[in-house]
Structures are given as structure tokens and as C-alpha cells.
């Protein structure tokens, strides 16, 4: 059925609903592109350069708090003051999809490789045994010279507080969702 040739009012309503859905999808994609989610993805290596090597260790430092993303190695995830970053709080990146420039989707494990950064629909961030689930997949994209880390399953961004708490929240342009 072509919507341009419709005479029946029921068919016209159906065409209008399809048109409305297409417009909503276009607006949603435009918004995601504007905040950097649909942009090619990249990860920062320990040197601060984009990384393309699976298995490389990375350190994430929050732009707003200047605190480093760390964990207890078992379950809890938090950030620590920058002065403590030198004690080796690094994550091993595991490429799920990447191109030659390091763009891709990654899983981040602790040094022992047994537990990975995970998230929930409710915004909690924690460690769980590594698995192939989407809650352990993270899109990392360059935004304003820094990096935004977005959970694949929830489409929410990794966020942090001045007090060291780590969670995910809906994507915004604030510096608490940017990492170096």
C-alpha cells in the first residue's frame, strides 16, 4: 500500500502512524549522534592515545572528579583520588568489535581476567564473572577530546560522583560522564 494514494480513513491513519514512528526514529538518531554515541568508537590506552590492541591495560580517570576507576577485584567498583592512580588501577580491554584504528565495543576485566565491569538497568555498576552478555559490553567514543563509556545493554553512560561512587545514568553532556 502506498500512502500517497490512500482514500480510506483507516488506511490514512495507519500511514500517519508509520510516518510518526519514522520521525521519532530520525530524531532519536540525531540526538544520539549529537552526544557522540553513534560516532565511531575508540578506547584510550595507558599512554592516552587511542588503542587498537586487544588485551591492553587501560586506566580510566573521570574528567570532573579527577578520580580513577577501580574495583576491589571481586564485586565493588568505585573511583579513587588521582594520587592513588599510580598504584596500578588498570583494566584489561577485550575487543568484541574493533577496526584498525581501535574503534569498537569492549569488555573490561580486572587484572586477573576473571571478573568484568558489568551494569544493570537500574544504573548499578559492579563486577561479575566475565561472560558474553551485553551488560558487560561497553561502547567507548571520543567526545570533546575525552571519552564517553556507554553500556551496550542499557544505553546509559558510565558516571561518577565526587565521593567516588560509580553508576550509569542517561547520556548527557556533563563532565561526570567523560573519562581520560
TrEMBL record:
UniProt keywords, alphabetically: Carbohydrate metabolism, Glycosidase, Hydrolase, Membrane, Polysaccharide degradation, Transmembrane, Transmembrane helix, Xylan degradation
Organism for this UniProt entry: Streptomyces albireticuli
Domain (Ricin B lectin) ranges: 61-179
This protein's record includes keyword Hydrolase: yes
Protein name as annotated: Xylanase
InterPro entries recorded: Ricin_B-like_lectins, Ricin_B_lectin
GO MF annotations in UniProt: hydrolase activity, acting on glycosyl bonds
One Gene Ontology term from the biological process aspect of the record: xylan catabolic process
Entry's transmembrane regions: 28-48
Amino acid at each position: 500500500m502506498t500512502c500517497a494514494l490512500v482514500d480510506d480513513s483507516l488506511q490514512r491513519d495507519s500511514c500517519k502512524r508509520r510516518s510518526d514512528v519514522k520521525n521519532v526514529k530520525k530524531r532519536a538518531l540525531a540526538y544520539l549522534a549529537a552526544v557522540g554515541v553513534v560516532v565511531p568508537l575508540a578506547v584510550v590506552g595507558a599512554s592516552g592515545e587511542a588503542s587498537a590492541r586487544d588485551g591492553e591495560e587501560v586506566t580510566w580517570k573521570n574528567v570532573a572528579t579527577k578520580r580513577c576507576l577501580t574495583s576491589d577485584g571481586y564485586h565493588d567498583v568505585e573511583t579513587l583520588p588521582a594520587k592513588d592512580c599510580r598504584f596500578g588501577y588498570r583494566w584489561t580491554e577485550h575487543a568484541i568489535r574493533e577496526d584498525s584504528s581501535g574503534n569498537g565495543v569492549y569488555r573490561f576485566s580486572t587484572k586477573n581476567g576473571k571478573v568484568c565491569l558489568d551494569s544493570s538497568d537500574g544504573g548499578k555498576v559492579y563486577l561479575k564473572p566475565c561472560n558474553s552478555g551485553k551488560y558487560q559490553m561497553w561502547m567507548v567514543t571520543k567526545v570533546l577530546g575525552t571519552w564517553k563509556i556507554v553500556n551496550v545493554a542499557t544505553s546509559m553512560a558510565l558516571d561518577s560522583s565526587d565521593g567516588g561512587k560509580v553508576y550509569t545514568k542517561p547520556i548527557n553532556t556533563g563532565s561526570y560522564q567523560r573519562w581520560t
